[in-house]
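Make up an example, fold above all:
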Amino acid sequence: MKKHKRIVGFFLLLSFLIPRGLSLAEEASAPRQEIESLDGQVQDLKEKIVEMNTLLFRLQEDLLFPEESSVVVFLAVEGGNYFALDSVKLNLDDKLVSSYLYTDREVGALRKGGVQRLYMGNVKSGDHQLVAIFTGKGPQEKDYKRAETIHFNKESGAAFIKIIIRDSSAKEQPEFAHETWN
């Protein structure tokens, strides 16, 4: 009988402790679940912030440079054997709008096919003059300075101008060209 009472007492004790142990385990895992839930919420917020930042950037670009009046000037280098670029200055309608001094690394990137945005701004519709002044080293490592004048007519919509520095093997000189499109 004593043995039987001990067994019953043991089971009663177990029946009391097991649910209490389970509730303690649930309480310990609850903060983990809350933390995991918060991690997911934080990640969602980060994604929404990045998305909002992108939208704000686009809105800022649209407000500062409306398509109807914007002009964008790019620079590309094709070759580079006859001209080592040091700097570029851009004058738009007799106003200095951009000036850039290049590192060897930047010149190397342009020679590999990179394109640089030199200027982005607003102009009224009509005729305009863009003067690009290039300085660097020409053939035989001599100082070289060249100005390229580009006349363009700004119509509705954005205007894009790409200035290209390329090698002229026939002349053994650099050649400066441009492309425009709306």
